[in-house]
Amino acid sequence: MESQDYAVRFVDQHRAELIERVRAVDTIGRGLLQHKKMHNRWTLLLLNDTSQNTMKNIYNDLDLGGAPAKQAFYKLLKEHEPQLLQELETENVSGEIQGHREEQQHLKEEREKERQELEAWRADRETEEMELHQMRCELQREREEVEKMRDMIKKEKESMNRKNKTQSKSVEAQKSPFRKCQSMDAINNLGVKDQIKQEKESRSLLRKCQSLDRNFKFASAPELRLVLLGRSTAEKSLIANGILGREVFVSGTPSPTKVQMSSQMKHRTVAGTRVVVVVNTPDWFSSTVSQFQLWQDVKHCMELSAPGPHAFLLVTEMHEYGEVQATILEKMREILGDDCFPHTIVLLTHASELTESITGGFVHTGSPDLQRIITRCGNRYHILNTSNRPEGHQIRRLLETIEKMVEENQWSFYSSEMHMEVMSQIQEVEQKLQRERAERKLREELEAKEKFEKELQETLREKEVVIQVQKEKITVLEERIVELEEELKEERDEEKKKELEEKLNKEVEMRNVTQNEVKRLKEEAEKEKCEREEEHREEIEEIRENYEGKAQAEAERHVMKILLPELFSRLQSTLKTKIHNEYERQTEEKNHEIAAIKEACSREIERVQRLKNEEMQMLMIQMSREIKRIKTENKIKTERLQGEMKWKVGRMKLNLESSPQGSPGEKKGHGEIHWILRNLVIVSLLFLFLFVLNHTCGSFTPEMILVCFVLSNMAIFTFFLVDWGLRRAIRLLD
């Protein structure tokens, strides 16, 4: 079956050429088919019909005869035209190789085309750099011309000031004689008229000078470039539309899917010659924006407002201040530097029906964050009602405020040197990275294509070797089949004929198997080629995706390498200021707390001292009372004892007087009197000692003094009574 399929394909591919060769070789069709009916029909056709119809009929018969007819046709060609058959077979094989060579040539052409594109891109970049250099030179020349104009204006101002001074001196000189001659009415009236005339002339000259200065300023700055900053995108768009006088920005409530991601610029012409440029920025103060996106948009904003904005309008709501608004100053310092604050106006918005006096009072008595922002921006602020689109008089007043600030800055625009250096470094890094990325991309793609070509050539070479081996097998099998067919024709024995037919069928089957194998190998080669091409495309796509991702990451990394030192220094300075302010605040709070604690402690000490003094006074009063009571009791007892002793002494004297010689009882009474007197002296001395001790020992507390005094007196008195009672009992017993 494989040999038949191969013959069919071969005849279909080279049918026209083969038929022409057959006409020259076998004019009556002998040997084309073994079927007698088909042979007779072809003979009649060739003899009786024209050449064109004959070829047409042979073409139809080949189609009707199917594989056996085409197989016989192939056999006929092999017998009569082997050279033609060899040429056609080599042409068929070389066609596939030529196709692969054409593909390689196509790849080389693509590679050459890409190299040419890269060279063209490099040439474009060089031309762009040259144009950028020329633009910078032109901008420098324009700046020099503006400086010259400013110098001229300054000189004219000075000359006008000198003229005004000389005129004022002449006026004063003319005033003095008229003051001396006040009595002369005619001269006085003349002097007043001349003075008024000269004052009018000086004022008109001054107005001309101011108008000339203003005209020079307007000529040097024909554009007014404004940049809107803030959190609310809707309010910024509303204010921008009001300034431009038409709806150019979307001012409604932004949906979550439509968020402004980059700065936008619009402009309009005012008074026929003045151009107002408004740049509406996204939310730069949000914590969700990455540093790379932020710096990219800052760069884009500066490009839109080139050579630099005249004013920044910081749009913020009047009644809503939180943690994010508290960090606006630090964020502006990090993004734009300290040079932006002289060009900034705080634009306070509110949506309520409040009067200007109420809103102005709120500004002066508002939150400390708002006060700090307004103070840092030079106390420049403007209030707008954004409940609807701002009206014309509000926009006119806003523009007057902006022009006043711009005139104070002498129409100079914001151009932070640090910001410009960072932007130029970022631009250089981006250009370098773009060139490196393009070269790396081209190099990787070329390497991948070369690798793919090598692999494809190796696989094709292997397949060609296998196909060539299979073709050799097919040729051997076909030769064997031809030999068996010839033997089969010559053999007359039926059994041998059957054996030969079986062998022929086996050889045909083997040839068919080999042809199928060749077909399968070709299909596998084609399939593998397609798979390889698909893998190559996927590999190229993956390289490009990885390249884009790596390029983005590398760009961010390079940009951050440039920005991080500057950001670090800024953050370090801001952290130092924050730490210093926090330290001062904490120390101030601690000082307040310490002062409050000291004051509370002093009050508590005073209170405790007062209570202690009151208790001491009460105790002293009680002690004095107790001492008085004890003294009175002791005095009464001593008086009573003294009375008794006097009575006893008197009685003893009487007894002694009545009995002069005395008896032992009298002597005993006399000794008792001496004992009583001695005890009285001892008691009086002890009492005196205790009294002195109570008054002199200041180290004792009043309670201890009182207790010691009472106990000592009671002990002495008890001892005296016990002693006296014992002596009295002894005397009675005696």
Structural commentary:
With 734 residues, this protein is mainly α. It folds into 5 domains: 2-80; 96-208, no CATH class; 221-415, Rossmann fold (3-Layer(aba) Sandwich), CATH 3.40.50.300; 430-585, Helix Hairpins; 659-733. 79% of the residues lie in helices and 6% in strands. The chain is built from 17 helices and 6 strands. It has helices at residues 2-13, 15-25, 36-48, 51-80, 82-180, 185-220, 233-244, 291-304, 323-326, 328-336, 356-364, 368-376, 392-408, 417-490, 494-658, 664-696, 702-733, and strands at residues 223-230, 264-270, 274-280, 311-317, 344-350, 381-385. The chain has a 6-stranded mixed β-sheet with strand order 2-3-1-4-5-6, sandwiched between helices. A hairpin with a 3-residue loop joins strand 2 (264-270) and strand 3. Helix 1 (2-13) crosses helix 15 and helix 5 runs antiparallel to helix 6. It is elongated. The N and C termini lie far apart (177 Å).
